[in-house]
Amino acid sequence: MSLRLTLSFAVAVGCAVLAGSVQADSVKIGDVFQDCESCPEMIVVPPGQFIMGTADSEVGRLQNEGPQREVTISKPFAISRYEVTVGQYRQFVKDTNRGGQKQ
Predict the structure, then answer these.
(1) CB-hemisphere CA count at 13 Å for 48?
(2) How far apart are alpha carbons 30 and 76 in whole angstroms?
(3) How much is the pLDDT for 23?
(4) Domain locations in the chain?
């Protein structure tokens, strides 16, 4: 599974969890929580800014590591602490009907 796909799953699950049974105002920056026993462990990420990408001058830099750009996270969100398994994602899709699949 690609990193981009893994992050997409994690963010989708995280955003859904904060909007779901865990109340967004009940968790604080850095809190770790699980929405259910089989759900992934989630951690709340703070808003802020960071530089994504590698400087052109960095030794060993790969072509796909640039260009550098500033990324702004405007609101806190939750993301999985670890990779979301295919089984966890399937359960998320089933429970939330968010998979884009016809039922």
Answers:
(1) 7
(2) 10
(3) 59
(4) 3-47+76-96
Provide the token pair at 58. Answer: 């960095």
53: tokens are 């990408």
C-alpha span between 45 and 80 (Å, rounded): 10
In this predicted model, what pLDDT tens digit does every residue of 74-89 receive, in sequence order? 999 888 999 999 988 8
CA–CA–CA angle 97, 12, 30 (5° rounding): 135
Q: What is the pLDDT of residues 34-76, one digit of tens each?
A: 888 888 999 999 999 999 999 999 999 998 999 999 999 999 9
What average pLDDT score do residues 78-102 get? 83
Q: Tell me the two tokens of residue 39.
A: 């759900």
Helices 3-19, 86-96: crossing angle, 10 deg rounding: 40
Alpha helical stretches, state H, the chain? 3-19, 86-96
